[in-house]
């Protein structure tokens, strides 16, 4: 079983993560990074079922601003990546593999670019690569200044003590299982877009200022992808939800060492097709001779 661990970092924040040690001699550490308004339970099924745990330690973390530990301060790529450095140092791990979904994929790209000596490999599940955005995220990219103004006002109100006193926690494994049953009964895959694509459920379970900050970070330009020297696996969904497929693939080609796998899903393949995602990742690790 993976035990819950806590780590104090700068600013008085206590990070929470779970670490499952491999069944034998470990060949390295895998760090799982969740998406917007999510938490580490998004990876619960993956950790329980993946064969990676036979030879790799697997760590899943509640990113700063997520999970059960309240945080109403600054959220950005720099803070999240610094937190990951603290966790790796605490676990005495010089290098790790990073698997991230959506926002987690964006963080993994930044980390691998800023800390190339600490990223052994990167798996990006439906990354939102710069200039490939569609829909409301593309619109948000044109009005980021308004989002930043809303963030400033909301954080000021928070500092004055004006905020929700209780935000209910979500077990995303349970939510994903319920959604899969709903998809099977309705026979309409796009039902997931209507529910998971709406910000309303997220805002019910997530601080407003944190949500707005994460949207800004999602649409933030990525660093030069040619500077990510670690091997990269990109798992894409075939359904067009947030990004243009052609523009996405053009940007993937900028990674020096990248492979692409396409899953028949929308933007939430961990929910829609967990087996296919897991098998794609395991096959990639096997080819690296680590899994």
Describe the protein's architecture and organization.
The protein has 291 residues and is α/β, with parallel strands linked by helices. Helix content is 41%, strand content 17%. It is built from twelve helices and eight strands. Strands 1-2-4-3-5-6-7-8 form an eight-stranded mixed beta sheet, with helices on both faces. Strand 5, helix 3 and strand 6 form a beta-alpha-beta unit. Helix 5 packs antiparallel against helix 9. The longest helix is centred in the middle third of the chain and has 16 residues. The protein is globular, with a radius of gyration of 18 Å. The protein starts with a strand and ends with a helix. The relative contact order is 0.16.
Topology of this structure?
Blueprint: E1 3-8, E2 14-20, E3 29-33, H1 44-49, E4 57-62, H2 77-90, E5 96-101, H3 103-114, E6 119-125, H4 135-142, H5 144-159, H6 172-186, H7 191-196, H8 199-204, H9 208-218, E7 232-237, H10 245-252, E8 258-263, H11 269-272, H12 274-287
Parallel strand pairs: 3-4, 3-5, 5-6, 6-7, 7-8
Antiparallel strand pairs: 1-2, 2-4
Helix pairs in contact: 2-3, 5-9
The chain-level mean pLDDT equals 92
Ends: how far apart? 19 Å
N-to-C series of helices and strands: EEEHEHEHEHHHHHHEHEHH
Low-confidence stretches: none
Cross-sheet strand order for the largest sheet:
1-2-4-3-5-6-7-8
Strand content: 15-25%
Largest sheet: 8 strands, mixed
What share of residues is helical?
A: 40-55%
Structural class: alpha/beta
Number of helices: 12
**What's the alpha carbon Rg, rounded to whole Å?**
18 Å
The coarse overall form would be globular
The total count of strands amounts to 8
């Amino acid at each position: 079983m993976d035990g819950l661990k806590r780590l104090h970092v700068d600013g008085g924040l206590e990070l929470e993560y779970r670490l499952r040690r491999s069944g034998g001699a470990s060949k390295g550490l895998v760090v799982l990074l969740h998406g917007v308004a999510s938490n580490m339970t998004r990876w619960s099924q993956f950790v329980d079922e993946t064969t990676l745990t036979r030879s790799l330690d697997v760590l899943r973390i509640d990113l700063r601003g997520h999970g059960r530990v309240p945080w109403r301060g600054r959220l950005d790529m720099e803070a999240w990546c610094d937190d990951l450095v603290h966790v790796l140092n605490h676990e005495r791990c010089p290098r790790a593999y990073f698997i991230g979904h959506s926002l987690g994929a964006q963080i993994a790209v930044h980390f691998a670019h800023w800390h190339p000596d600490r990223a052994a490999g990167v798996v990006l599940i439906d990354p939102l690569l710069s200039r490939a955005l569609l829909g409301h995220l593309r619109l948000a990219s044109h009005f980021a200044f308004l989002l930043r103004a809303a963030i400033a006002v909301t954080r000021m109100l928070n500092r004055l003590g004006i905020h929700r006193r209780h935000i209910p926690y979500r077990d995303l494994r349970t939510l994903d299982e319920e959604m899969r049953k709903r998809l099977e009964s309705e026979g309409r895959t796009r039902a997931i877009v209507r529910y998971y694509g709406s910000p309303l459920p997220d805002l019910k379970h997530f601080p407003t200022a944190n949500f707005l900050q994460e949207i800004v970070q999602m649409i933030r330009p990525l660093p030069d992808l040619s500077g990510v020297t670690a091997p990269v696996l990109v798992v894409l969904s075939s359904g067009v939800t947030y990004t243009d497929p052609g523009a996405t693939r053009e940007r993937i080609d900028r990674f020096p060492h990248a492979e692409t796998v396409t899953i028949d899903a929308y933007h939430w393949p961990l929910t829609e097709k967990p087996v296919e995602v897991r098998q794609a990742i395991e096959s990639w690790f096997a080819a690296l001779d680590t899994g």
